[in-house]
Amino acid sequence: MKQINALVIFIFYLSPILCQAQENKDNGFSIDFSYAFTGFSNHGWGIGISYQRNLFNCLLIKVTLGHMTFSTNLDDVYNTSVSISSFVNYYPISNEFEKLYIGVGNGCDFMNYFGSGDLPPTTQDTLINITPQIGWRLNLFNIFMIDVSTGYKFIIYNTQNYDDIKDYLNTGFQFGFGIKVFLKNLFKEKPDD
Length: 193
What we know:
With 193 residues, this protein is mainly beta. It has a single domain (2-186), classed as Beta Barrel (Porin). It has 3 helices and 9 strands; from the N terminus they run αββαβββββββα. It has a 9-stranded mixed β-sheet.
């Protein structure tokens, strides 16, 4: 069973596939599996949904809503969370929302502890973070968008009712890898010659 869990974690960690059915590659909804890594690694689950929209020729905004439920280090104490984050990315060398981008984002995590174990005195935590990042997006054959990024997640506010809560939010150095699949382009029929 541990081998199956490790395989699932590996798949979600290295290739969080973001599927988007819209024709326009700059706007639309996508499924975000990055929350699954934290959930699975702590004997739980997670999922998120993102919406991105171009603001101007070189600016893209991305808003994500995520949810995780997982075990904590305390016996029979679990955590459920709702996360809201937003990023603004600037593309200095391309107005096609490809190649190099520089961004900054912030997020808020609302954590709730429950279970039959020794719960913290206050069963809720709120954490607010800010994350500067740099990345590269590459469009392959107008079917796949590969996104590689790195950044650093700073906690700027933490109620810290449970001492180890920061360990579940992947603070510090971040590495991201995503693949977006444009389903309409993937299944588009080629015109006859």
